[in-house]
Amino acid sequence: AKAVGRGTHCLFETQMDETARERTVMERELREALVHGRFELHYQPLVDLDDNRIKGVEALVRWRHPERGLVSPTVFIPLAEETGLIVPLGDWVLNQACRDAAALPDDISVAVNVSALQLRNRNFAQGVLMALAASGLKATRLELEITESVLLDDTESNLETLHTLRRLGVRISMDDFGTGYSSISYLRRFPFDKIKIDRSFVRDSAGRSDAGAIIRAIVGLGASLGITTLVEGIETEEQLATVRAEGAQEMQGYLFSPPRPVQDIARMIADAAAK
Ligand code: C2E
Ligand code: CA
Ligand code: CA
Ligand code: CA
């Protein structure tokens, strides 16, 4: 029994080593990818539920890996956050998204995801200003999406940075609303422009009457605070009907369009405008 125990221990250690090695490899590859420009942005439409028009797009980063193909951000963003690489990567995303958006029609905004480590950086607001200046994009066309976890740490200076950006005209959205412990209390601490209701609330909605009730309650909360509500992850006509019935203003999801390269999104927007 002892031998088996020790064997198991060794196997466990080997797996730990393997995981650590994979992380080290991925960290090195991420650094190389930054240097060699192997990231790309895809854009997913944010759609007005009144008239089905595209109001804006969310920039979502992908990694063009030489062997693994297009790698999802869910695979590398956590490691980029742990290693601090999210700071230069996030800066690239911000600049590229502003450049891409500047080439889209004036009434289309662009939403960029911001990680905690980026916001905590003293120079973050300055970096946003530089991205706007370099691209010629108006501040009012930029939205920054932050999750509750971004506000959890170092809250006072984070709030100050957000206020600074908001005074300049940049809009701030609360992402993944409802997945954290204190989403609602953050609405009192910062005047968000938009709430993005997490897709877990619609995913559970098939055949369940309480999902509609929860969305309705959040939409009502947003309305009373003057905050726009968007529902994420709409995949079916049934879900679309639910969020429309509950009074949300915007939606995002595969039903309308998955994230696509900027040329495809530009064509979608042009086609819609020509109708
Ligand atoms: P998120 O900010 O909540 O972005 C929405 C995610 O939901 C995207 O996944 C999008 O492709 C996916 N999605 C959209 N519609 C649907 C739908 O109808 N059904 C389903 N099942 N999924 C849908 P993606 O592109 O894989 O991004 C995953 C996460 O990675 C993002 O979640 C965000 O947290 C992070 N991320 C992506 N790009 C960036 C970035 O530039 N910076 C930072 N810090 N994080 C990023
Ligand atoms: Ca987001
Ligand atoms: Ca989200
Ligand atoms: Ca999410």
From TrEMBL:
Origin superkingdom: Bacteria
Portion held of the full protein: 424 to 698 of 707
GO MF assignments: catalytic activity
Protein name, as recorded: GGDEF domain-containing protein
Domain EAL as annotated: residue spans: 23-273
Species the sequence originates in: Methylobacterium haplocladii
Phylogenetic lineage: Bacteria, Pseudomonadati, Pseudomonadota, Alphaproteobacteria, Hyphomicrobiales
